[in-house]
Amino acid sequence: MTTRYKLTMAYDGHLFHGFQIQPKERTVQGVIEEALKKMTKGKRVVVHGSGRTDAGVHAKGQVIHFDYPGKEIPAKNMMLALNALMPIDTVFFDSEIVNSDFHVQYSTKGKWYRYIVDQHRFTDPFNRFYTGHYPYPLDIDLMQKAAKDLIGKHDFTSFAASGGQIVDKVRTIYYVNITSDPDNKKIIFDFIGNG
To answer: How many domains does the chain have?
Structure first.
């Protein structure tokens, strides 16, 4: 008998080679499965993610699920146990037990991408893994106007990694917003889409 757990997590991706397991590389899925292996005394528990991130990409609100063998553990206790075994760059902040027909990949409604550009004169060494850097003036109104053309269905083949497993590179962008945070000298790009 197994229990299916759904957990929501965040991770700092700059030391990960993406979400999905890769041989001899540190991945998010790999560190979660290693923690679960310790909890199950050596049994492999396969972790499913709502999506995959590339190397160096961070996530805040990534959802995963897995089937835990053996005795059911309350959802909160599962989250606490996993957090005790996670490296400092990975944390779970929500958990629940779900029906066995729940699958995180087929329950995903969309993905929200946020890119932040620092506009200070010099790069902030403490934020170099979390922001881009462009110290020159930008016309936010013109960028916002142009961003409206991104809304809709598009083929992203030219942006995909070569040799990837995903065949269909057509995605739909539902929402784009570009905002300026002049007090902190940052420009924030938000995209919501289906992949």
So the answer is: 2
